[in-house]
Structure to design on (558 residues):
């Protein structure tokens, strides 16, 4: 057997990344419960907000137009949060040590999870928008505005996925990662996602107006349904890029620091 | 071929206020099986982590396959494979997918990966389960797959951290055969184990570590002879061992020991005299008090 054993060369960064992306995509497809949950939950929430709460919140009957951008973000946030669990699963399993002791860039394993999360969540976003159109969502956006909105959604998913990836790296266990993620998932409820912030008590309004979710939602809402945009677009992009950079650096440092410890 | 696969001199590692490795020295001749024994917390896993570049040493020189573990990490990584305490396999993928993934990451082309995976599946008797998800595998199958993955490309040093923990006897013996086969191909195996019998059966050299230092090393026979000649074992009427006492093995020492004991123990106590086992060696080397007197 020894003679047939090929000698090791280093895999290129391109191959390493594509192998890890392929791995994470396989994981996504095989984890059917999580996949169904990631798509079903936002759809259920949308139906709930449109048909159950919608009438009470906004009696004009146009609530669906208001709430869809919020549901899209809630869905994206929820979908990204499973990255934390996936990453933590790897970090607390012997497999990470195997990757680290190979002559490859081991952090590519995280890149794989991030890319798979982007693919999963863009698909889920597509499903949510399709269902929204079915239940009466009537966007006024032209092609450019659609592209802009999709761009912001993409950036938001990327940002939150990296943030959850970093949480997954530092968390002690997958369930801890899931717990931390849960806290972040409250952010959309404290934003303009479901009700305008001026209906909230003033102290809460201060929080809701100055947290990253509100400008992102207002941007998507403005682009899709023509509500006034003002500076929201730039504020949203600044929030996302800022958090993304921090999350990215945090995950690289945490990944290095965690070597040899599980 | 290099004479030593692993050379460690004066290795120190502390975590916070806790000194885990305290001036550890060892050398592992190339192409041999080296077993590391020690009680829990003796620093076995830390040592393996340092040897496999996962953790940086605080002090000392550590060379694996001729490469410095700090300055020449890539050289070390190209020469070793690590099989950790828990099988490092991907549960969600199939056995074949696991192998192909590691083949690709080791720089093989898609076609080479395919061929190599099939060879390894066959060699490790996993062909029938190649397309099953690893989640459904038994402990023995996971370990076999784990080892197969470690051997995707030729490595001169293979680290096995407790390779047979949790396996049944049959799987354990099958794994032993594989490990012995690897040595016959010239691969150096560095393993830790809790099973003294395993070290006894497999290892060319055994090192016992305690408090972050090698307290004894040698062939299994050498270690056994170090703890003296014979062991007196006393059992009660129900055949339960109640005491083991190491002796120098000469008539004077044995009879004196028995004489003293005959006053204090019941009349039906059974006496047998046997060669020391690895258990006796281990206990003698890792417990500080009474038995230490018997080590020559």
């Amino acid at each position: 057997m020894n003679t047939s054993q090929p000698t090791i060369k280093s895999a290129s960064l391109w191959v390493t990344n594509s192998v890890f992306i392929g791995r994470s995509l396989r994981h996504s497809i095989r984890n059917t419960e999580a996949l169904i949950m990631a798509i079903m939950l936002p759809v259920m929430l949308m139906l709930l907000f449109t048909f159950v709460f919608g009438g009470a919140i906004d009696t004009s009957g146009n609530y669906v137009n208001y709430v869809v951008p919020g549901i899209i973000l809630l869905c994206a946030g929820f979908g990204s949060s499973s990255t934390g669990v996936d990453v933590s699963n790897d970090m607390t399993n012997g497999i990470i040590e195997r990757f680290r002791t190979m002559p490859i860039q081991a952090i590519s394993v995280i890149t794989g999870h991030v890319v798979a999360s982007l693919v999963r969540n863009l698909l889920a976003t597509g499903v949510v928008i399709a269902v929204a159109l079915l239940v009466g969502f009537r966007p006024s956006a032209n092609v450019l505005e659609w592209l802009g909105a999709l761009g912001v959604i993409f950036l938001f998913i990327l940002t939150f996925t990296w943030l959850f990836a970093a949480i997954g790296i530092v968390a002690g266990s997958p369930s801890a990662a899931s717990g931390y993620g849960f806290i972040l998932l409250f952010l959309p409820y404290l934003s303009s996602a479901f009700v305008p912030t001026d209906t909230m008590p003033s102290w809460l309004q201060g929080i809701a107006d100055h947290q990253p979710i509100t400008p992102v939602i207002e941007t998507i809402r403005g682009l899709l349904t023509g509500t006034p945009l003002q500076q929201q677009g730039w504020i949203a992009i600044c929030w996302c890029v800022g958090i993304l950079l921090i999350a990215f650096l945090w995950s690289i440092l945490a990944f290095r620091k965690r070597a040899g410890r599980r | 071929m290099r004479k030593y696969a692993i050379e460690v001199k004066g290795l120190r590692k502390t975590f916070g206020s806790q000194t885990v490795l305290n001036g550890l020295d060892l050398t592992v001749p190339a192409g041999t099986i080296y077993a590391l024994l020690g009680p829990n917390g003796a620093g076995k896993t830390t040592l393996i982590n340092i040897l496999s570049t996962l953790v940086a040493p605080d002090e000392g020189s550590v060379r694996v396959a001729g490469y410095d573990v700090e300055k020449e990490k890539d050289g070390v990584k190209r020469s070793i494979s690590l099989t950790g305490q828990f099988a490092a396999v991907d549960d969600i993928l199939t056995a074949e997918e696991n192998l192909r993934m590691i083949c690709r990451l080791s720089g093989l082309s898609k076609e080479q990966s395919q061929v190599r995976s099939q060879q390894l599946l066959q060699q490790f008797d996993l062909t029938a389960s190649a397309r099953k998800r690893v989640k459904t595998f038994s402990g023995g199958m996971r370990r076999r797959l784990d080892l197969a993955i470690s051997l995707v490309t030729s490595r001169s040093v293979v680290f096995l951290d407790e390779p047979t923990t949790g396996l049944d006897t049959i799987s354990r013996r099958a794994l032993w055969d594989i490990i012995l086969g690897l040595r016959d191909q010239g691969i150096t195996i560095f393993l830790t184990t809790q099973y003294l019998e395993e070290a006894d059966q497999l290892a060319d050299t055994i090192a016992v570590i305690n408090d972050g230092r090698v307290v004894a090393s040698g062939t299994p026979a050498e270690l056994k002879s170090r703890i003296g000649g014979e062991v007196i074992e006393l059992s009660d009427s129900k055949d339960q061992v109640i005491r083991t006492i190491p002796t120098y093995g000469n008539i004077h020492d044995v009879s004196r020991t028995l004489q003293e004991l005959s006053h204090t123990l019941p009349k039906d106590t059974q006496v047998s005299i046997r060669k020391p086992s690895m258990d006796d060696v281990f206990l003698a080397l890792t417990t500080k008090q009474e038995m230490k007197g018997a080590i020559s």
Remarks:
- Chain B is about 35% helix and 25% strand.
